[in-house]
Give the backbone structure.
Amino acid sequence: MATTRLRKTFHYPDSSDDEDTVEAGLDAQDQETLLSTLQTRDTSSTRIYTLLLLIFPASITLLTLPGLFSISTFLPSLLALASLAASAYTLYFLPLPPRSAGIIVDGQIASAGKGKGRAIGGYGLNTSTSSARQGERKDVPWLSDEVQELLAQYIVPANGVVCGLLVLLELIQGREWREGMMIGGGYLPGLVLTVVLWARRELRVVDMSELQQLRS
């Protein structure tokens, strides 16, 4: 009796096969492990980049200190040191609120208020600027809560005023632009503040609470 052999055409697995496998394999424990890993990595990388960026104002501060020993450069150097210290304080002790996080489900970002009880179908992160949580201010041991609260509210605008005064002094002196961007120049503290404010925005951690609400 003749026999019939069934043959199945071989095909390479594509990305959709991988996604289906991931979706099928992510139980509650897997999701918890995934979220914990994402949060740990995000927090660790944010801290590392923050510390590395602190080298920028710290090194300029050390190079500006000698200006305090000259009468002609005492006031500009004092203002510059105050601005640099304020920029470093803002970067390290006043992080912005976490970035809103979302999950890609069926090709779309699912919000935390929708899709509850659905399995995680991807690992996309929505880095929009809105967030439901406030940034956690880091405590300074030698400052009271009242002082820290005042600093949190006014240190950035006050720093901007100081940078504006330094720019004004630089314009009055009539030096060239490149001289103002060097150590002791009136434009350098403003540049440091601009970099710090930009990096502070980019170094926000991701709010994982929204992802946790989407767990199946």
Observations:
- The first strand starts at residue 103 and ends at 105.
- The chain has one domain: 15-131+143-213.
- The longest helix spans residues 28-64.
